[in-house]
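Customer ticket, subject: "Can you confirm the structure for SET domain-containing protein?"

Message body: Hello, I'm evaluating your service for our small team and ran a test protein. I'd like someone to confirm that this is what the system normally returns, since I don't have a reference to compare against.
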Amino acid sequence: MGAFAEQPLRRGEWVGPYLGTLATPEETMARYNCTNVLSASLRADYLFRLDDERSIDAQNSTHFSRYFNHAQHGNLEVVVRAEEQRVDFYAARDIAAGEELTFDYGVRYWLWRGQPAAGSDTRNFSDPRFRELAVRETLTLTGDVEAELTLLHPPPVGTVLPLVPLTAVELQAALVLPEAESCAALLRCLDYFGAAPRSKEGVQAIRFGVGVEARQEPLLDARDNHAVLQEAATACIVQAILDPNDASGASGRDFAAWLAANGAELELIRRWRGRVPRFSSVQHDVTALAAYLLWKNPGAHLVSAPLTKAGCDALIATAARGCDEECLGDVVATLEQHAPREHVSDLLAILQLWYTLGDGCTVISHNPPKLAGAIPQHLRAIWDRVPLLVEFGFL
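Agent reply: Thanks for trying us out. I re-ran your input and got the following:
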């Protein structure tokens, strides 16, 4: 199947337009029953991209332009007029009657389709020099605004990637780290959102929210001003991440209210973690911390029978010794004598989640690329694409 010149064509002569159905990425994904643009592109062999918002799909077209085949040095020149939503073909050189009409489909087309037909192209699209471009294209078309290359150039095995809080629960986990680590995590959050302190006429200015219209204030030393960093990071996450479908903003206000109501307890946890070394496991860590919180802040934990300092110290000492699971269960049972069982269970669960997120994640393999630990969403979005990249032959 191809298209051929019925009569001679002179160089520069208009040959015809590319005709088909104008479609947005969303319409293309719906038409081909795909969840991302890359998958749709693989199924739509006749999709001609105008720009990021529009393509022409000639899948069902009967126009001769649908039958132009690929050639690296084709005899047709393509002119894309995105604003006019139009693609035109011109003769790139003099063309004889009966000669097949061809044009270069471009690198982008062949990145996911293997090699062109024999004799039509001298480029080897499996060559490593195309690999980085392929991954960039894949990550971009499957959802990333800015494709990251951590799959191509991963950090050394054993590298710990620290927490960058971008969601409500990740922000909570950052706020219960020891204060210096908490400040560092909050600065990483602000840097991600473009709100980190920047020098402005010799004085650092911090932005409370996303975008140029967000409130800005001077900040003398970001590293020593945890309260300001917390407020700024909260503003960014509430505005950009928490619940973009909640037009009323109630969920954002609820989260900000939760932070305000629990500020004293978050400070208690930061102080605890700054003073107390880590125990043999996260489970031992959180059990000891729960005992401390029930003693120190009984009103927030529905404590009915006050826990004495001596009793608290004994429970913490037991957890610190690295006791076995059964012994640790006895500590939890003792805590349940002072506060409702369900509350103790929920407290241990949230503390364990915060500790795990705060510990970051670790690179454990390059082949295949693999992380261990609590993987935050901005990394999971990239590293979880490994099966897709393997399917398309990039990894």
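A couple of notes from the result: The longest strand covers residues 76-81. The radius of gyration is 29 Å. Feel free to reply with more questions.
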